[in-house]
Amino acid sequence: MLKQTYLIFQKEFCSFFRTRLAYFILGIYLFLSMFCTFYLGLYFDVVNANLFSFFYFQVNILMLLIPALTMRLWADEYKTGSIELLLTQPLSCTALVIGKFLSAWGICLLLLVGTIPLWFFTSRFLTTDNLNILGSYFGCFLISGCMCAVGCMVSAFNKSPIVAYLASVLLLILIIVVNYNFVFDALNFPGSLIIRFTQSLNFFYHQSTVLNGQVGLDNIIYYISITVFALWLNRITIEYKRG
Amino acid sequence: MITVKNLSKDFGAIKALQNINFTISPGDIVALLGPNGAGKSTLMRLLSGYLEPTGGEIEISGRTYASHRMQILPEIGYVPESAPLYGEMTVFEFLKFMSAVRNLPTSQTSTRIAEVSEQFELSGVLNQKCETLSKGFKRRVAIAGVLTASPRILILDEPTEGLDPNQKYGIRNFFKEYARKNIVIISTHIMEEVTSLSSRVLLLNKGKLIKDTTAAHLSELSPDNNLETAFRSITNKDK
């Protein structure tokens, strides 16, 4: 199982570089991140000890770019017919799903690592809160994992990568950007425990704490749960299509 | 040995295959014949484990996909009609990937790739990207890919489509040689191929197996002892 997962990871990860998609996404990501940090985030006007100007825009940038990474992972297999080749090899469906997901998540790690020079740059002028920044990076990595899993799942539903991209962005907007607090407030549940429970399901609530570098166990469990759930749906979709 | 019992496959309301039964033993080259939409590709997809049947079962060496999928799949080499490859990979990378997923030991990979490359005349294109290959080369690379781990059952959907006459001749000879110890199942519309290659013919029409015979016996069903005439008269009878 591990060997199978590694083979698929290796194939897909290398494929991002063979098709030059990885370089393209990395370039756009760095440009957007720096543009948002320095121009929209008023980098030089606010105290950036925890790189707030940078992390504030990360979710929105990743939300637009990660679907571009994941859109072809399954959709292309169905479009070209190579899915028949892949699913008739001695590879478990779980290994395929995890291998493809990890390849996209691996690229996300590279994207985030590519912004580390900004941290060094900032630390030359300010006393940076390094632990906080590290926490924010970890939070971004977890969020990117969620987005990759959702993107992979949507890609498995489609034959067209463009449709997969648009559907992934739309789904991520619905999950991430919309603050569902108003729904929970309107429901007006009695009891603080229920309020806390419904709040804990809200992506917006977790996102704000994680991007401030305060990653807690509840945040980690939340993001891992979403990731695992999306990957499980991905696997079910692939198996359903075979049936 | 392949044993197919009461196999059926539905796609919604469409009954693609109905109650198919047959047995294939090593040494057989089986040609699946039938008009378009008869269910040949569906049957191949079921035999290769890509699709799951709606009813009935397929036994490969006494094991079924439902209980022993991961043990059966290394024994199967399936090349779909479109002979799909990963366009961004070079031929060598593709063959290496296929060797790895088919659990060929790393120590044997280079030797085996060299063997199949020579067999299918791919040595000159090993460093070429798959997307730049001609249709004939793509098909040969796809066949070479599944053959890296020498599967005991080879299932090929229209394997000689896009090949020139010399390549067709070469590949047919290879199948004859390969089927001495293994099972080869091909789907084709080329009657000449059925006559020259197959030891058995399974004729499908409208999702049903209507003949399980040899090419010679099938030809005898027509007044002029011609396979194509026999095929036309049998498959048109139901219209």
Structural write-up:
The complex is a heterodimer of chains A (243) and B (239). Chain A has 13 helices and no strands. Chain A is mainly alpha-helical and 243 residues long. Chain A has one domain. In chain A, helix 4 packs antiparallel against helix 9, helix 6 crosses helix 8 and helix 6 crosses helix 13. Chain B is an alpha/beta fold and 239 residues long. Chain B has a domain of 167 residues: 3-Layer(aba) Sandwich (Rossmann fold), CATH 3.40.50.300. Helices cover 38% and strands 25% of the residues of chain B. Chain B is built from nine helices and ten strands. In chain B, the strands form two sheets. A six-stranded mixed beta sheet of chain B has the order 6-7-8-3-9-10, with helices on both faces. In chain B, a hairpin with a 2-residue loop joins strand 9 and strand 10. The longest helix of chain B is centred in the middle third of the chain and has 14 residues. The mean pLDDT of chain B is 86.
